[in-house]
Write a structure and sequence with these properties.
Order of helices and strands: EHHEEEEEHEEHEEEEH
Oligomer: single chain
Strand content: 35-45%
Number of strands: 12
Shape: globular
Amino acid sequence: MSLEEFELRLPRNAFNTRESARAGDIWRLLQDAAILGSTRRGWPPARYNIEKCAFIMRRMTAVHHGTAVHGHDLQTRTWVATFKRAMFSNREIRVHQQGEPLVSATQEWVHVRQPDMALIRASPALQESFSIRDLDDPIKLPPAEEHPAGIPFDFSFDCWHMWMDPLAHANHPLYVDWCDEAVHRRLAAAGLHPDQLVNLAEQVTWKAGVVAPERVTITSQLTGTTPGGVVLEHTITGGDGRTCATATTHRGLLDGGNAALCQALS
């Protein structure tokens, strides 16, 4: 079976000024869970390099159920739910803190050949290592209500060489950091403290990788509301104008001030 269970812990640098873990750092924890789950099935990163193959992220959806507390062990369960055509794999991850749900995620991975990242079928040995389990439904974004669209706002920067991951592109949690930074700057300009933002859910879909040192632009727009917050759509554009990814983030305010959040983002 592909089910693996273990404990993880968020590092100190994952927490902001109000002692809340950033969404991007939660995504790094979920990435660690995927790597550890694969390693326990006999496929650590070094073996992928030897076999000249890799999994790259196509889409990831995460829903936050609570706030992580620094120093707590996080009970983590992960399993491979689907492995279609030996190329498209869904990994499920569920994380609990002191017995209560903390975050749930579905990761959709694509199997590729190194170094050209061409789509390729996984080897029989890899397929046999990840037996399929059907333990829970895949994670979906919570339902939202439409809201009069806000004015789009941009955040641009040059991608750092220091951000390149082992596959020579920006690692997938960075995209969440970038979208949140765009929103944080907008809130700060409106007089709201950025660290009052609460993580509710997010989904990112990738089309192409961001590579250093290209110019990256995040275009964000308020598009909806939920009972606990707002919905923002983001487009991540590379220096040549290509769409590298699209993202949806659900965010709230610590005091529940939906009206203030909508006003700041409109």
